[in-house]
Amino acid sequence: MIAGNTQIHALIAGCRANDRASQKELYNTLKDYAVKICYRYQNNLEQVEEIMNEGFIKLFKNIHQFEESRHADVLASLKGWFKRILVNTCIDHYRKNASYINGQMLSEDAENIADKQETGIDVLSYKEIIEAIRQLSPAYRTVFNLFVIEGLTHEEIAQHLNISVGSSKSNLSKARENLRKILTKKTDHKAYVEPIR
Questions:
Q1: CATH code linked to domain 108-193
Q2: What is the pTM of this model?
Q3: What sign does the dihedral 134-175-31-76 (CA atoms) show?
């Protein structure tokens, strides 16, 4: 595991020289991080691995573009740079497969779904919330992640996914509604299974 900037600088230099040992060490260092990013967009573990590996190929191919000398914490900066590569790879994968997903793009009619207050959310763990997000359909999950987690605007999401702004808003609204139902079911189940002491 990489301990400091000196080691990460050496590793990056090795990757730029196509040194397989350096690439393997960087892969092992960033693999868990990459899986977590891809896991938010895809619920098929085989496809998570495929997207992650494609992201690593892009990382190694473009590592000469990363300017580590501009950052105090090189590993954190490299992770941020790699995250953009992974998210874009997830978007590309979604776009490539969107034509095979049936009935996921909603009309703009569903845009005005009323918001309701969540209850019992505090009893859920981070892992349970991420698992609930993964239960959303690919279209809803992708828009939800891009808007809520990555902080993209509906205009940016529409451009990335080749959909209308209205579809982005609609998918987010429906994702929130479906997520609310999933989480409510979980909290109701927890309240029933785990009585208050």
A1: 1.10.10.10
A2: 0.61
A3: negative
